[in-house]
Design a protein that fits this description.
With 1014 residues, this protein is an alpha+beta fold. Helices cover 32% and strands 23% of the residues. Residues 768-985 form the S-Me-THD-like C-terminal domain.
Length: 1014
């Protein structure tokens, strides 16, 4: 019995045929492999490749159990904005009064949006975080919507229900789909619950893309079926998915987005199989396996987990410029391959290889083939490590250049492999790809480097041996329940799903379990993501599952239709870029904000810069600024520049009145049950009504850090009043009582808490600010753990005394520094230090992250290890970090949403927590700001931390409102968070040891610097 695997790449189509009864032999059952050119008609290319391996192997075609195909065909339609292959999509949100703040297609690139955007509908439905309905489904609304979609001439529909991961019985999305197809039978409907987990916008985006390629995918897969018929293969057809598992062709035709990126995964799985790493668990348990696929232009690196599957990319993945949430392998690509160009500096010193390449011109341009371009292949042949082309053409290359070139290639591969490590365990590298000859030396940090047999067809072999999976991604409410029973129920569901998908029940096992407590919530809401896999069941009737005669005729008809796809014109004259990236094409160094007569008129570029800076000031918390920036950019797009203004704190009259309004609750909820924006306005209006305030002079942010740093902008546009350049924290803190005026005795009450359904709760009196926090959090939980809150308006005089000044400007300058550093290729820390006091505390790599939920907050710690000497040599690291002054200890950072302190520990892991506590040397602590920056200079929130990230930790001095009094330190300092240290002692020790964050300086003012007087 045999299985055939096919992998369709942009250049070549690979095929392999395996004997499943010989998988344990030295040949691993591989009977034949072939490589053919990918044709413009993909079906024909597949047909040619399969025909060739069948001819080479001479097997009985009736004994072929199945064909498995991996292809990038569908994702290419999205990336290329191919209007011939993409359909318009109508979007239905089951959300009640929520989510209108960010409409569908909001962050799509303009070109893609112009091709696929259809009408959007907001209907009753959706769930709260605790499983309650926001509103029941309304069949009358659905009937009217179906009619409107048909009238618009649209066939494809995406249905997105709030917290669909909780809707395990299909009461909302699936019921809505059934009603739509009852009212309009011609509609094709995709439900978001089948696509991704929590995070409404990214799940919706993936669902829209899936719907947009649905028609094209159905035609293409019917074409694949027809190719099998032409080859006399009457067996089931499968497609490989992004995570390395198989899906039936019928399922793939409905969920094609899950097959977008199967190519790298097929290579990884095939390489591991060919090397025999599936024999016994001990080898996988003792080592981490990294597959390195070296081609002519690039090298792709992917890490194999102990489960035997690739590590999945964290958070969101961009497809065609669109943020999406679905399972994708994490692949690192670097510009190094057999055709990479080799250069030497003018002084004859440094030798560099890549990132540019001669690509498919290697056989004409490379020196070994008579060309005049020195490539990586030339270096290898000149060193006599390989015999390709004519050695006489390269024997004159100087030895220094050969040595330097080989060293640079070795260094690039070592760094890339290190970035893809998932632990500190020894590394086994599997080399595949035609360009793998360029690796001629042992790699530091790699215990073993292997080149499997048939390595040039590892992708096709990976498709042939792929397994079947059953995945479950749900949210369970664990309050009052036995957690083990909940986990067992999810486990059984995953296994049952795998068996239903075709897995052999004797071979199914759980390979992945994720338990993610949701932030802030108190009902123990926990996301469980579980995957079960098993070998494809070899059914007795497998070879009988071919086409009936009628199906064959239909397959041929559809295949012929596939070749005639040009039924829509290509999109032309479409605006480039997207709403989310206004700085594209902007020279940041020359950009000047619009400030006239003391008023700063916010532009889209300003919004993006402020969002980046607010992330740094968020110190790990404050929630994501992405949705709020998107909301603000959409307001500016509709209302025009000038709709949002900022004025200085000094410009306020002492008796002027300023209001407050912010998001309050769990970011994990607000990212799913997205607000409509009206809740903040309702909270402000409720407090003003109680206070008898009919007008006000400005809006002030409660905290400048994270998403709340931008929440004042939509409020400014709504009321026509300016944002004041200040906030009440100078950073992000987890509670309302951390507002600086309240620390110094100013009244916080009344406080209103509101949602988008018209609910409002007001606290009029309380015995302490701590009690106020407890009362509004209780209301927040009842209203779904995502609300808005507005405190008592304050006068201009109070704000001048107790607000942190110029923090909107500070966020802008920080964001500009990060963007300018990227644009000008200068050091991030150097750029930041030019505008604000900052101290780089550490450069290293995350080696451990632990998280839990306590009292409604995400608490945990992060451990960062020092970089090796070679890693320090990376140009992205600061030049001052040299072997002489490199820190050898690890850095530990505890967090409660925000980062609380940073301290050295001698080693990790320590033998006991008490040993660690006794030996920790804290070098920075709250209220000073601690931020962790990624390789692009953007701040990383505590939920984004994971093993292997290379980071830079910075400290910035807090406002004297926090550090200059006992009251400030009592509420904002380490004692409030239970840390066993004193801010004064940490400050003094830091000054003595060179880790002091410096003295606070009032942030520069954008208004003062750029003001133009008319």
């Amino acid at each position: 019995m045999y299985r055939i695997g096919v992998d369709v790449g942009g250049t070549n189509t690979d095929a392999a045929i395996l004997d499943i009864n010989a998988l344990d032999t030295e040949s691993r059952g591989v009977l034949a492999t072939c490589k053919t050119s990918t044709t413009s008609h993909v079906t024909l290319g597949i047909q040619n490749a399969v025909r060739e391996v069948l001819a080479l192997s001479k097997v009985d075609r009736s004994k072929v159990l199945n064909v498995a195909i991996g292809t990038t065909h569908f994702v290419n339609a999205v990336i290329e904005n191919d209007a011939r292959r993409l359909s318009r999509v109508a979007v239905i949100r089951l959300c009640g009064p929520y989510t209108r703040k960010v409409p569908p297609f909001a962050d799509f690139p303009y070109a893609l949006k112009g091709i696929i955007e259809g009408p959007a509908f907001y209907l009753d439905g959706g769930l709260e975080i605790d499983g309650r309905e926001i509103f029941p489904l309304n069949p009358d609304q659905i009937k009217a919507t179906a009619a409107a979609i048909v009238e618009a001439g649209i066939q494809y529909v995406a249905v997105i229900g709030v917290f669909s991961a909780l809707d395990q019985k299909g009461l909302h999305e699936e019921r809505c789909k059934a009603l739509l197809q009852q009212f309009a039978p011609g509609l094709s409907v995709v439900c978001s619950g089948q696509i991704g987990g929590t995070g409404l916008l990214t799940r919706e985006n993936a669902t829209i893309l899936n719907a947009a390629i649905l028609g094209f995918a159905r035609r293409t897969i019917q074409g694949f079926r027809y190719a099998m018929y032409k080859l006399d293969l009457a067996c089931p057809l499968y497609l490989t998915q992004n995570d390395g598992t198989l899906t039936d062709a019928a399922v793939a035709a409905e969920l094609p987005i899950k097959t977008f990126a199967s190519g790298p995964t097929n290579s990884l799985m095939g390489a591991a199989f060919l090397q025999g790493l599936d024999h016994g668990d001990q080898r996988l348990a003792d080592k981490q396996v990294v597959v390195v696929d070296i081609g002519g232009t690039t090298t792709d690196i992917c890490s194999l987990l102990p489960s035997g599957f690739p590590r999945q990319a964290p958070n969101f993945v961009e497809v065609g410029g669109v943020r999406t949430a679905f399972s994708m392998p994490e692949v690192l690509s670097i510009g190094l391959g057999g055709g990479s160009r080799v250069r030497q500096s003018e002084d004859g010193g440094k030798v560099t290889v890549g990132p540019d390449s001669v690509a498919h011109h290697l056989t004409t341009d490379a020196m070994v083939f008579g060309g005049n371009v020195m490539t990586a292949t030339d270096i290898v042949v000149a060193s006599k490590a390989a015999s390709i082309g004519d050695y006489e053409n390269v024997k004159g290359i100087p030895e220094q250049l050969i040595t330097g070139g080989k060293a640079d290639m070795k260094r690039q591969l070592e760094r890339a492999i290190d970035r893809m490590k998932v632990s500190s365990a020894p590394v086994c590298v599997l080399l595949v790809g035609g360009g793998s000859i360029i690796l001629t030396e042992d790699l530091d940090g790699v215990e073993e480097c292997l080149r499997p047999p048939h390595h040039d067809s590892a992708n096709a072999v990976g498709a042939a041996i792929a397994k079947v999976a059953g995945e479950v991604d749900v949210i369970e409410i664990l309050a009052g329940r036995d957690e083990n029973e909940a986990i067992e129920a999810v486990r059984k569901t995953a296994i049952a799903t795998a068996i239903a998908n075709g897995a052999d029940e004797r071979d199914v096992k759980i390979v992945e379990i994720k338990k993610i407590p949701l932030q802030y919530v108190t009902n123990k809401a926990t996301r469980f993501a579980m995957k079960a896999v098993g070998s494809l069941r070899a059914r007795d009737d497998a070879v009988q599952n071919g086409f009936a005669n009628g199906a064959l005729a239909h397959a041929q008809e559809v295949d012929d239709d596939t070749t005639q796809e040009a039924t829509k014109p290509e999109a032309t004259n479409v605006q480039k870029g997207s709403l989310t990236k206004p700085t594209l094409g902007v020279n940041i160094a020359k950009y000047r904000p619009c400030v006239k007569d003391g008023v700063w008129y916010i532009s889209p570029v300003d919004v993006q810069l402020i969002a980046s800076g607010a992330g740094v000031l968020g110190t790990g918390g404050g929630g994501s600024s992405y949705l709020m920036a998107l909301y603000t950019l959409d307001i500016l797009r509709k209302a025009g520049e000038g709709a949002i203004r900022v004025v200085s704190l000094e410009s306020l009259k002492d008796d002027g009145v300023c209001v407050f309004g912010a998001g309050y609750g769990a970011p994990s909820v607000s990212d799913e049950r997205v607000s409509s924006g009206t809740d903040v306005f309702a909270a402000i209006d409720a407090v003003n009504k109680i206070m008898g305030i009919t007008d006000f002079d400005g809006i002030v942010a409660d905290e400048i850090g994270g998403g709340n740093g931008l929440v004042t902008f939509p409020t400014s546009a709504r009321y026509g009043r300016p944002v004041v350049d200040c906030d009440l924290m100078g950073r992000a803190y987890p509670t309302l009582e951390h507002g600086t005026p309240y620390v110094y005795g100013q009244p916080v009450l009344p406080v209103a808490t509101t949602d988008c359904k018209g609910n409002a709760s007001v606290v009029l009196t309380a015995d302490s600010n701590k009690r106020v926090e407890a009362l509004i959090r209780t209301t927040c939980i009842e209203l779904g753990n995502s609300t808005a809150a507005a405190a008592r308006p304050l006068s201009g005089k109070v704000l001048k005394d107790y607000a942190v000044p110029n923090t909107v400007s500070q966020a802008w300058y920080l964001g500009r520094a990060v963007h300018l550093a990227r644009e000008s290729k200068i050091d991030f820390i150097e750029a930041i230090s030019s505008i604000t006091p900052v101290k780089e505390l550490y450069v290293g790599k995350v080696v451990d992250v632990t998280r839990d939920v306590s009292r409604g907050y995400t608490v945990g710690r992060c451990v960062i290890a020092p970089l090796s000497a070679d890693e320090e040599d990376d140009s992205s690291n600061p030049p001052s970090t040299t072997p002489a002054n490199r820190e050898k200890r690890h850095l530990v950072i505890p967090f409660q949403n925000e980062y609380l302190s940073a301290g050295f520990i001698p080693q990790f892991p320590t033998t006991s927590s008490s040993q660690e506590d006794s030996e920790e040397e804290i070098i920075c602590t709250v209220p000073d700001l601690i931020s962790i920056l990624g390789s692009d200079g953007e701040a990383l929130g505590s939920p984004e931390l994971r093993y292997g990230l290379k980071v830079r930790v910075i400290g910035m001095p807090a406002s004297p409102l926090w550090t200059g009094s006992a009251e400030g330190l009592r509420v904002g300092g380490p004692e409030f968070f239970g840390l066993k240290c004193s801010w004064e002692e940490v400050r003094d020790r830091g000054r003595a040891n060179g880790f002091g964050v410096g003295e606070y300086q009032k942030p520069r003012s954008v208004i003062d610097e750029f003001n133009v007087t008319s």
